[in-house]
Amino acid sequence: RDVAPSRGLGDVYKEDLVIVTENTIGGSSVQAYADNFYDDNNYGFNESNDGVLLFIVMDTRDWYISTCGEAIRILTNERLDTLAKQFVPYLSSGEYYQGFKAFAQGCEELVAKNR
Length: 115
Known about the structure:
Layout: E1 2-6, H1 7-13, E2 16-22, H2 30-40, E3 51-57, E4 62-68, H3 70-74, H4 77-92, H5 96-114
Parallel strand pairs: 2-3
Antiparallel strand pairs: 1-2, 3-4
Helix pairs in contact: 4-5
């Protein structure tokens, strides 16, 4: 398991940004696993635990974006679909660092525009 919290989004906008990879999650739903991982590890700012988590299962190549608090309002499904077009191609080609960087930058841009 690798977990990479982002400090930029949190320091400036008080939104946590977390990227998690797991080799396998057994028979669990990727959505449920991601949502629970965010909650169970006490991520988020303020009482509403504002933040976003990108979760990737390496063996199945499934991924899910979990949002909490203010991030639910800002990172709508439409905006997340647009964001996915920016980072998923990197993941598909094995360029994980570039994909994670594109995800983080895209989240920061969306939060900055829609606060």
